[in-house]
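#onboarding

Welcome to the new folks! Below is a worked example of what a typical request in this channel looks like: someone posts a single protein sequence, and someone else replies with the predicted structure as tokens. Don't worry about understanding the tokens yet, we'll cover that in week two.

Example request:
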Amino acid sequence: MKKKGFFYRVFDLYYDGFRHMTLGKTLWLVIAIKLFVIFVVLKVFFFPNYLKQHTEKGGEADFVMEQFEAISNNQ
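Example response:
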């Protein structure tokens, strides 16, 4: 019997499990679609690029520093 490495055995375990899966493939597809919607679609529509709208290119660090200073001066 040939002894194989740990990582190969772990990979083989998951590969074999996914190959024989029936309902699980559909569930993984649903999970992948949900993650795509959460991270791509929602980001585009609900989280605009605030720095790009309020600064010029190359001035992002200065803008962030000014915002932190304004917050620390108000406290």
